[in-house]
Amino acid sequence: MSNSPEADDSVLEIRGQHPLSGHIKVSGAKNSALVVMAGTLLCSQACRLRNIPDLVDVERMAAVLTALGVKVTKEADCLDVDPSDISHTRAPYEIVSKLRASFFVIGPLLARMGVARIPLPGGCAIGARPVELHVRGLQAMGADVQIEHGTVHACIPGTRGRLQGAKIYLDYPSVGATETLMMAATLADGETIIDNAAQEPEVADLANFCRAMGARIRGVGTKTLTIVGVPSLHSTEYAIIPDRIEAGTFLIAGAITRSTLTLSPVVPEHLGAVIAKLREAGSDVQIESHNRVRLLPGEEILPTDIQTLPYPGFPTDMQAQFMALMTLSNGNSLITETVFENRLRHVAEFNRMGANIRVNGNCAVVQGSSILSGAPVMATDLRASAALVLAGLGAHGTTVMSGLHHLDRGYERLERKLTQAGARITRIDGQSSTSPSDVTHSTVQPSH
Ligand code: UD1
After folding, report:
1. 237: which of 48, 126, 139, 425 fits an S-S bond (Cβ 3.0–4.6 Å)?
2. Which of the residues are catalytic?
3. Separation of 259 CA from ligand 1 center, angstroms?
4. Does 135 lie in the same domain as 88?
């Protein structure tokens, strides 16, 4: 299906300073696809999902659904999901531990089956990532939730079989907690109000998918969601929105290589903060149509401060890529990460390439320079892996990036898309005992 989840021994060899040109097609949004797949559990009939990206994370979510007894078939970007016969209510630890988003099945599984047993996903490379907002919200809706031996056991007590509508205020506009609680509320008895809800486009996409199945949700895309529960939801066919983070990554690829690029499909409004900051950094982004943008690079890359925030603020998932761009700016930029507590680990890798970045707490001061030099680097998480590819595109010489399992989780054929636009990137399949200097080359195309 997609790149191997065991891509640990492979590397990308990126030869920098080659201009890009032409058009890049943007895939369906990973974060929408994953949660909409979880959302199919709400429905007792088959659903067809379109524009599903070909990613290791999607394979893992499909594996979680399959383990629950759901029939999942994939053809090209179309996923048929038949959750009519759910046979298990326990998600397997082996998969949840690898795919944090699979914890999000707890809401729909509990609402539909009255019971769900989901292992705690644990922390990850970017932070501790607790789930207490999910748990407290489900408890407010009448669920009995216990955490025992690393697993969250949730059930609806008594004989009523349905969660109860509730008024929930989220201490923080968590994307995952908003999605968990919104899904749970679609089948609850009565009205649920989620205040201080996340407004990310992927949350709205999930709400629109639930509405297409017959859910009653108001306030989509705002801080206050009102959900009136219905007894059951029906089959639907639904297309996932384009991936705004993948699109933003390609915009920065254009800016860092001083290249003109067009991208589609995109929803330009979803890229608002990224486009504003790219303009501040000297590039122009033209909105060519409702689903197409053009990046026009500036003469120089200007220093630009960013602070990551919940949507519509600057996305944390674009912080590392924007930092790559700032390493080649002609001044100092301050990058402040407020969403995750440990999301600056890529700084050390950029510095290996000759960047000058100092970290103080959750802030990074990037002293821009005109030159990065290619070096062996290690991807530290998913978005950092894309950022290192971008730095490699802008660097002199060759960058060899390992840790490709991060990249393959969430980018559909990144190196192939960039290569088709003119980049010089080769995926090299290695052996576990080899180092980047003695791996054997293979062509890019067949590795997917
Ligand atoms: C989702 C995205 C991820 C993105 C993030 C923020 C998916 C699959 N992943 O992750 O790519 O970076 O939104 O835009 O959609 N928090 C708590 N308690 C909770 C829940 C969250 O303290 O119960 C904290 C987290 O630790 C983090 C912050 O809230 O510091 C934001 O997390 P959240 O919005 O929940 O992110 P995810 O849904 O995990």
Report:
1. 48
2. 124
3. 33
4. yes
